[in-house]
Every structure is written in structure tokens, then in C-alpha cells.
Write a structure and sequence with these properties.
Layout: E1 11-15, H1 19-31, E2 35-39, H2 42-51, E3 57-61, H3 69-79, E4 85-88
Parallel strand pairs: 1-2, 1-3, 3-4
Length: 89
């Protein structure tokens, strides 16, 4: 078993209203060397994106209460046009 580096690969923002999915994604990403910030709503994720210095990827659920993943995608692209986004459903 190889020892994982103390240095992370980057930051992934997760927006999903299902707690189990947020936990699972956070754990899988951490094992792969990524740091993540997980939010239960598109609004919370967008607030984080407004102030975060570096974000490498946004992962969002398509269907969420309040702001949908599609709305979050459009707003995130307005703020960070180069941000890669993965839409999950």
C-alpha cells in the first residue's frame, strides 16, 4: 500500500441535497487526494464560490430544492467561466 502525499490535488465543490451523497463523494475524493467542500444547496455552494480563491471543479446534483443544479451551473459560469462542472443526477 502506498503512502498518500500530504499535498492535496486541489479543491472540488460539491452541491447535493442528499446527505449520504455528500458524505460519499467527500470520502471518495479525499482518498484520491482531493480536498472538497460540500453544501446541501446551490445557494450555499454559490456563496462559497463567490469568496473562494481557487476551485478546481464544481460537482452538482441536477435536482435540488431551491436553486437547481442547472441554475447553479449558469451562475457559477458567470462568475468563473473557466470552471469545469460535473452535473450529477
Amino acid at each position: 500500500m502506498s503512502k498518500q502525499s500530504d499535498k492535496t490535488k486541489g479543491l472540488i465543490v460539491i452541491a447535493d441535497d442528499e446527505p449520504g451523497m455528500r458524505v460519499a463523494l467527500t470520502e471518495v475524493l479525499a482518498r484520491a487526494g482531493w480536498k472538497s467542500e460540500a453544501f446541501e444547496s446551490g445557494e450555499e455552494a454559490l456563496d462559497f464560490l463567490r469568496t473562494a480563491q481557487q476551485v478546481d471543479l464544481l460537482m452538482t446534483d441536477f435536482r435540488m430544492g431551491g436553486m437547481t443544479g442547472l441554475e447553479l451551473t449558469h451562475k457559477a459560469k458567470e462568475m468563473r467561466p473557466q470552471l469545469p462542472i460535473v452535473m450529477m443526477t
